């Protein structure tokens, strides 16, 4: 099999890169990582050389390319069906895909107001009332997803074992933490389990060592 190469952006900021990286790493899928840092608010012109969208992440498998986080995760799951990237039970897989798609397509309030930033000291933002309302609605829905699924599975992850669904929500764990958005014990317990995962710790260690600063993501 040709080597998999995953192109990513800055580990401190690139939430979309984090998702497939942690999914593949946690599952033990072998791949080569190539990090191309953002050089300005618009990304990096070099992204156009490796991705048809001009964005990261992008996975190269020989001459074949797959882009968008969830598509990369799905492709890896098909290449390595024994790695358990998605839950085993059909009902669990359907639920995992449902909440992953919800994450993919929604939660604009928290995305826009609270960029992923692993170096950010924990503190709340002083937001306009309408912006805060959007963040609060997203926090409530995401908290409900995490609470319901961990209660259903017994935890510590959404479907018991770490899966693609956890990978899709990984950047939100940082957002909840960095912007001090939650106090519910069940939510905090899930966040603690995520932050203790070896793949999370490996990504975080590299993120904290980066020197690049993107002002737009320094909320």
From TrEMBL:
EC number(s) in its UniProt entry? Answer: 2.5.1.18
Question: Carries keyword Transferase?
Answer: yes
Q: Pfam families per the record?
A: GST_C_2 (PF13410), GST_N_2 (PF13409)
UniProt keyword NAD, yes or no: no
Q: Which top EC class is given?
A: transferase
Please give the superkingdom of this protein's source: Bacteria
This protein's UniProt keywords = Transferase
Q: Which InterPro entries match?
A: Glutathione-S-Trfase_C_sf, Glutathione_S-Trfase, Glutathione_S-Trfase_N, Thioredoxin-like_sf
Q: Which residues cross the membrane?
A: none
CDD domains listed in its UniProt record: GST_C_3, GST_N_1
Q: What biological-process GO terms show up in the record?
A: glutathione metabolic process; L-phenylalanine catabolic process
Gene Ontology MF: a single term: glutathione transferase activity
Query: Which ranges carry the GST N-terminal domain?
Result: 4-84
Q: What is this protein called?
A: Glutathione S-transferase
